[in-house]
Amino acid sequence: MLNKIYNKDCLLGIKELPDNSIDLVITSPPYNVDLGNNKFNKNPYNLYNDNKDHKEYIQWLEDIFVNGLYPKMKDGGRICINIGDGKNGAVPTHSDIIQFMSKKYIPMTTIVWNKNSCGSRTAWGSFCSPSSPSFPTPFEYILVFCKGSKKLSYKGESDLEKEEFIQWTNSLWTFAPERNQKVIGHPAMFPVELAKRCLKMFSYKNATVLDPFMGSGTTAVACKMYSRNYIGFEISPEYIDIAQNRLTNI
User: Which of these, 180, 182, 209, 179, lies nearest to 195 by C-alpha position?
Assistant: First the structure.
């Protein structure tokens, strides 16, 4: 089962995982921002409709991360969720996730990922007027939760370097977003740097890492680069082919 990406809906795939088997989850679920139809990104997902009713969307995420994943996580296991809010911060998706995750998990930290970019600085709303200003958000969140304890329940081999630890324990992370989305062929990717930092900060070498929204395979790529085992679920065969090609070319 390890080091494989399964063409399967994650709600179904998670049910088949052994209990207490996952050390770490690194993932970025769809943001529910109508990708492909909003003015900032005209490239839709291959199969997924990114425009659910917000309450339905949040319940869907809760079914995955709480109802589905909780028994599959090891004691002390961590979940890292990369998410951005909708409508320039007017839809507080990250807050809704914190609320439902806190029903069972322990909130560990909230990391702000400063992407040092802003897709469109023309989105000011009522320009030069307090009538109705708009606030484009050049940042996203990495929400980190743990099961049962903030401390890992076992010892392992760390590959964290001193300077990495000092820098990354500042919960403002600044690095560029993925620049090669069009070349790789996926409309909504996080960079390997994000997965790398989460791997090294929150797991030992040889940990089992799950990405229930594997997409173009970034989490798997980072796992292969940094000596972790991966499991992924992805509904799109096209994206799985992209991920496998990336893994082959490491």
Answer: 209
